[in-house]
Amino acid sequence: ILLLIRNPKDVATSFYYFTNVLSTLPSYDTWDDFFTAFMTKKLPWGSYFDYLSAWNKHVDDENVRMITYEELKQNPVLGVKNIADFLGISLTEKELQTVVERSSFQSMKKNSQKTHGAFGDILFRKGTVSDWKNLFSEEQSKKMDKAFEDCMAGTKLGTLLKYEVYCKV
Fold first, then answer.
1. CA distance 31 to 12
2. pTM of the entire structure?
3. Which residues form the Sulfotransferase domain (predicted)?
4. d(C-alpha 50, C-alpha 94), whole Å
5. Fewer CB atoms near the end CB (10 Å): N or C, the chain?
6. 3-state helix, strand, coil in the chain (%, to 5)
């Protein structure tokens, strides 16, 4: 199992735009309305923090490899190498470069009409790291940090994420 996780602030930001574009999901008049719903676990698919807590039980399972979105964006070659190693796939340098190029956000967005039809425009918006800084107020950022700390403090996944998500970005 390859577990891809992302900074909760960027998850919230991405989901805000996703819900406001997809008509089958509730939409929100303002970012503040969405943030309140996100923090009070009143969104479709539940709480991201509950999701992380559930996966924490499996972080040491030998058939689980965790990788962060931020890690893949920062060093896609190393990320793909780590994923291939975990899956037991040997790649030549040329194959590695092909996978890196074709799995880049830009490439997937460019090909999204072919791969996902009209839904591609909804799935592939920006693909950046730290886009949350364009929406979060300082108070919201602190609330999210506290919620993360309350939910994930003392867990292995919390320790890994704290380093990956907040120290490298």
1. 10
2. 0.85
3. 1-155
4. 40
5. N
6. 65, 5, 30
